[in-house]
Amino acid sequence: MSSSGTSPPVERDFPLARLTTVRTGGAAEFFARAGSEAELAELLAWAASRGCPLSVVGSGSNLLVADEGVCGLVLKLDRDLAAIAVEGSAIVCGGGARLPAVAARAARAGLSGIEFGVNIPGTVGGAVRMNANAYGGELERVLDWVLVMTAGGTERRSAAELGLGYRRSSLAEAEIVASARLTLVPQEPEKVKATLAELRALRHEAQPQGIRTFGSTFKNPDDPRAEGRSAGLLLAEAGCNGLAVGGARFAPKHANFIENTGAASTADVLAVMAEGRRRVLERFGVELEPEVQTLGEVRFPWL
Ligand SMILES: Cc1cc2nc3c(=O)[nH]c(=O)nc-3n(C[C@H](O)[C@H](O)[C@H](O)COP(=O)(O)OP(=O)(O)OC[C@H]3O[C@@H](n4cnc5c(N)ncnc54)[C@H](O)[C@@H]3O)c2cc1C
Predict the structure, then answer these.
(1) Alpha carbon distance 117, 192 (integer Å)
(2) Where are the CATH 3.30.465.10 domain residues in the chain?
(3) pTM, 2 dp
(4) Nearest protein Cα to ligand 1, atom 5
(5) How far is the CA of 4 from the centre of ligand 1 (A)?
(6) pLDDT for 177 beyond 60
């Protein structure tokens, strides 16, 4: 980046597939890791001065990267921006902190409310953008505020100002969650740890383990024609378990999970998504909407 020697290095043509859980897609034109608010501010200014588009990856656990790569600067938060601190009955953490680590830290400190995060393999920043939820817990319910950084400056936003809903927020693409504060409730550490163990076991039962996937592909529909069925159930009933295109397939154990079985490309994933969606539409009249987020020029074939 600059020649000052203190600025974080910006790498060119950085392969992004390994920063995602499904392991598909091309390279970032520019890539850098921000380890502090000061570094993040410098990188944001660097991108703005070049008119470079900006995006951020967390754990890449809900992300589909374009095979052609991503223009502009892609950022990842680490060090201070992935730290976790207990402050009384709250947790203040970086946007790059991993949710399972936050859940474990809270349990050790005897704090309850973020147990559901133990099974969500994403970061706090990604969880804010997606309003992550699981097993009755939801980020919105424990989120106090976030620090949002852009090239224009830093702003503290309360949870109420984030437009949180089912797997969505009003954060704009170039707005980066640098840190967040979660308000939790004191409880016996052993009780919180026991809940984590129970939730891990439940997840182990319900979902395939050790596969390359971005979790739920489509959102659960609120269309009455779905008659309350989840996206996974609709896909399963439409015969999608195990359905494959190239190296991508709907997991045999969970039809709303797409798995990279080897050398899948993002194009394979999109093709298998399109076929699953087509079958559900044909059979039930329900139009499934993707839950997975995209980076770069990814076009869903049906749009
Ligand atoms: C096996 C598996 C199980 C899962 N189970 C669940 C579940 O139970 N519940 C659930 O809600 N989700 C689940 N997910 C999906 C995923 O883990 C969540 O959506 C998670 O919140 C994404 O976080 P991430 O850091 O991986 O974000 P990424 O996938 O890296 O990015 C997702 C979006 O968030 C943005 N983003 C990332 N970091 C930041 C930041 N710091 N500031 C602003 N924007 C940011 C990205 O630009 C992108 O738009 C699962 C995924 C997998 C693979």
Answers:
(1) 12
(2) 80-205
(3) 0.96
(4) 120
(5) 34
(6) yes
Q: 80-205 in CATH: which number?
A: 3.30.465.10
CA distances from 164 to 28, 102, 118 (A): 29, 20, 21
Residues of the chain with CATH 3.90.78.10: 209-295
Query: Which pLDDT score is estimated for 2?
Result: 45
What does the angle CA 127 – CA 73 – CA 171 come to, to the nearest 5 degrees? 35
- Position 125 scores a pLDDT of 98
For the segment 184-236, what is each residue's pLDDT rounded down to a tens digit?
Answer: 999 999 999 999 999 999 999 888 889 999 999 999 999 999 999 999 999 99
Nearest one of 49, 53, 33, 41 to 153, comparing CA atoms? 41
CATH topology of domain 11-79: 3.30.43
Query: What's the CATH architecture for 209-295?
Result: Alpha-Beta Complex (3.90)
Which residues pair with residue 150 across a beta bridge? 153
Selected catalytic residue, list 105, 141, 167, 278 = 167
